[in-house]
From TrEMBL:
Protein name: DUF7963 domain-containing protein
Region annotation Disordered: where it falls in the sequence: 1-22, 105-149
Origin: domain of life: Eukaryota
Taxonomic lineage: Eukaryota, Viridiplantae, Streptophyta, Embryophyta, Tracheophyta
A matching Pfam family: DUF7963
């Protein structure tokens, strides 16, 4: 009976062993391919040096013919090693001298060209039988000595003792090397000399070579190989170096200028030592004044400007504080960084209002009407509203990028769809992560399907929408592995939660809702990123929200979602962000003129609601003097009925393809404003309003990117007036440089580290644990 059972059990074991062998062979092959990829990159100069001497080889199973292991073969001596740690193999086999054909040690003095009576002929040295440690070290290069009483080794260095004015020190007899006399050289050119074996072994050769070079230079000093730099060249080089330090703004610290290797580099290229107080003091002050004068000249040349203020809404760096950046937007589509304010903790709206007004008065002095508005991220709308009510010529706006990202949070809080998806995802993730047998099965299928494994990111707080959205992305990206878990043997758990999760995952409605939430968030995020990149003017705000509403209707139709609840949330956020200047700029900007049946290009009043038309009249009357109000309204009626000359309208609306993105963009963004200033001169009162409204930005981005290292650096100097003053000057210089030269080093660095991370991923796949193979 037992034999029968055993025989019956045999076929399943054989049938299951074959897939396991194939999986192991697949893993080994993948590892081998990864090693070959890394070696190929290294040979091209993009990896470690030792790959030139180590070659991956694939070892096959003699029975099945499938790959069973990966080895490394030394191309110099044909030795074969484990491929588990190539770096350690290189250190032990190549660097430590185990490989007989690898010559990486420094050249001994004996290999240098001989000087007068300085180098003796080769001699032999015998190893004392009492020196066990030295025997072990010499065994790799001697033909005997493993068990014998002496071993003959080649000399490490042959030095004439008469060249030194001090007695040579030898090790004590118990561990000393016996120095024997060498015979005369075959050529007879060198006299009978004593061989010196250094007590530190091969590691002493480099130091001894340096000593010999120093002696040679002292005996026969030579002229510098390159001519000394002139004073003008030195000053120019130091100015460039200082600019680089300032423009890196905290990434390069002043203390790094004292690094010994940096000093050695300066000495090597003929530059004098740097004075740190000079770089952080007078030189910094001079550079700041130079840049500041350029920026102030740009502002003086402009008839009016707008303040852009971002950073009031805390970012990810709140632990180290926050930086509020304030920039000046000019009518000619350029921006000038003005200042940065360091804040910690909660910031009251009154303080925000005070900072904004101080910045305006500092720029304008007594002519505060030169500032026609502020655009700020939505820290406190009260601060913007107060400034606008106190100074009626100003138009103060909330950032559209913040408006779109806030809309995503609104949807997460108010839509039942988002709440259902959050609850279902939380239950699923908690069950998969916490149940060990399910977790192991899930990670097994992740490795099988995607080549990597990990836990689902469960948020600590279900109200944290962005954390929930990260979980949604994890579940969608692991959908195949989750479905395989359901059919796995390990899922046979008789628990209510297991049945509930299984029913959820088998329900197509769950996956439809998951995909719907992911699709909608991605849609809004993409529009927000476009806003941040393209920095639209306020005339574009109404079209942007209309475009969003149309896209959301299509989304509702695709996923069979009720439109009304979604539109209600969008309308609520639209009203919170809406400003009457949106409608006025939309009407006055020639970019949005519409051609009617008669061929005229007329403002798009038909696209406005009745309330928005009233907003246009009210805003124009507020932005002109009381005496000009009725004239401006009459000119508005003329603009409404006559519009703009078709040729000028077509010139303003002319588009061309951006070669970098492939998108169609306005050929000359300044045309809208210039038409009012140079062509529509008969509409003088309305023109004053139009040129101020048309150029206003709808986003608060100052163009100066924050980073955690900069914040920590500023935070460390926040308690010192001198430190904060220097920090402000450094940020001012850095921001000006990035704007003037279009520096995208942050993006390039991210791209670089993205490539590096990709290589790490390859290595992680290559060096995966295959102990079970």
């Amino acid at each position: 009976m037992a034999a029968t059972n055993a025989a019956a059990a045999t076929p399943p074991l054989e049938s299951t062993s074959a897939p396991s062998e194939e999986l192991a062979a697949k893993t080994v092959s993948k590892r081998y391919e990864g090693l070959v990829m890394v070696r190929t990159k290294a040979i091209k100069g993009k990896g470690a040096w030792y790959w030139a001497h180590l070659e991956p080889i694939l070892v096959n199973n003699s029975d099945t013919g499938l790959p069973k292991a990966v080895k490394l073969r030394c191309s110099l001596c044909d030795a074969v090693f484990s491929a588990s740690n190539p770096s350690r193999t290189a250190s032990e086999h190549l660097k430590r001298g185990t490989c007989p054909n690898f010559a990486s040690a420094p050249k001994p003095i004996s290999s240098l060209p001989p000087s007068s009576s300085s180098i003796s002929a080769p001699a032999s040295a015998t190893l004392s039988p009492t020196s066990h440690n030295h025997r072990k070290r010499a065994s790799s290069s001697s033909s005997g000595g493993g068990n014998g009483t002496s071993a003959v080794i080649p000399p490490l260095a042959i030095v004439d003792p008469s060249r030194f004015t001090v007695d040579l020190a030898y090790p004590p007899p118990s561990t000393s090397l016996i120095v024997t006399s060498g015979g005369a050289s075959p050529s007879g050119l060198y006299g009978h000399q004593q061989q010196l074996v250094l007590s530190g072994g091969k590691e002493d050769l480099g130091a001894l070579a340096v000593l010999e070079d120093s002696v040679k230079r002292l005996k026969s000093p030579k002229a510098s190989p390159s001519p000394a730099l002139s004073k003008a060249q030195v000053d120019s080089a130091l100015d460039s170096l200082a600019d680089w330090v300032y423009e890196c703004c905290g990434s390069v610290s002043f203390s790094s200028l004292d690094h010994p290797k940096f000093k050695a580099f300066l000495n090597q290229v003929g530059l004098p030592a740097i004075s740190k107080p000079d770089f952080a003091g007078s030189r910094l002050d001079a550079k700041y004044e130079e840049v500041k004068s350029k920026c102030e000249a740009k502002i003086r040349d402009a008839m009016f400007f707008q303040i852009a203020s971002d950073g009031w809404k805390p970012h990810d760096f709140t632990r180290d504080g926050n930086l509020v950046n304030l920039a000046v937007n000019l009518p000619n589509c350029t921006s000038v960084f003005r200042r940065a304010v360091f804040t910690t903790g909660y910031v009251h709206s009154n303080y925000a209002e005070e900072v904004l007004w101080d910045t305006i008065t500092d720029i304008c002095d007594s002519n505060v009407r030169q500032c026609v508005g502020v655009v700020s991220d939505k820290f406190k709308a009260k601060a913007l509203a107060n400034l606008e009510s106190q100074h009626p010529w100003m138009v103060n706006l909330c950032c559209q990028y913040q408006g779109f990202t806030s809309l995503i949070k609104d949807l997460g809080k108010e839509l039942v769809l988002f709440k259902n998806v959050a609850n279902n995802c939380m239950k699923l993730a908690a069950f998969v992560n916490n149940k060990s047998q399910i977790r192991h099965s899930f990670q097994k299928f992740q490795l099988q399907e995607y080549g990597h494994a990990g836990l689902l990111r469960v948020p600590f707080d279900a109200s944290d929408f962005w954390a929930v959205y990260a979980l949604v992305e994890d579940i969608l990206s692991s959908a195949r592995a989750l479905h395989l878990v359901l059919s796995d043997e390990s899922y046979k758990i008789e628990e209510p939660i297991a049945r509930e999760v299984a029913e959820t995952m088998r329900n197509p409605h769950f996956w439809n809702e998951l995909e719907a939430v992911h699709s909608l968030v991605k849609l809004i995020k993409t529009m927000a990123q476009d806003i941040e990149t393209e920095k639209p003017r306020i005339g574009q705000c109404l079209p942007l929200w209309e475009e969003l509403k149309l896209k959301v209707k299509d989304w509702c139709s695709k996923f069979n979602i009720m439109v009304a609840p979604v539109e209600k949330v969008i309308e609520s956020r639209f009203k919170k962000n809406y400003h009457p200047a949106w409608a006025a700029a939309f009407i006055l900007d020639p970019l949005y003129l519409i051609r009617d049946a008669s061929g005229k290009y007329l403002p798009p009043f038909k696209c406005l609601s009745h309330e928005q038309e009233k907003d246009v009249d009210k805003l124009i009357m507020r932005l002109v003097s009381r005496e000009e109000a009725h004239i401006a309204l009459m000119e508005l009626m003329k603009w409404r009925t006559e519009g703009l000359d078709p040729v000028y309208a077509q010139a303003v609306q002319l588009k061309q393809r951006d070669p970098s993105t492939g998108k169609m963009r306005i050929a000359n963004p300044q045309s809208s404003r210039l038409v009012w200033e140079a062509h529509l001169t008969e509409l003088k009162s309305l023109g004053k309003v139009a040129v101020r409204l048309i150029f206003l930005h709808a986003t608060s981005s100052s163009g100066y990117k924050r980073n955690s290292s900069l914040l920590r650096w500023v935070s460390a100097h926040s308690h010192s007036r001198v430190g904060l003053d220097r920090a402000h000057k450094l940020m001012f210089i850095s921001a000006h440089s990035k704007r003037e030269f279009g520096d995208d080093s942050d993006d390039k660095e991210n791209e670089l580290f993205g490539l590096a991370n990709g290589e790490d991923d390859v290595l992680n796949e290559v060096f995966v644990d295959t102990s079970s193979v």
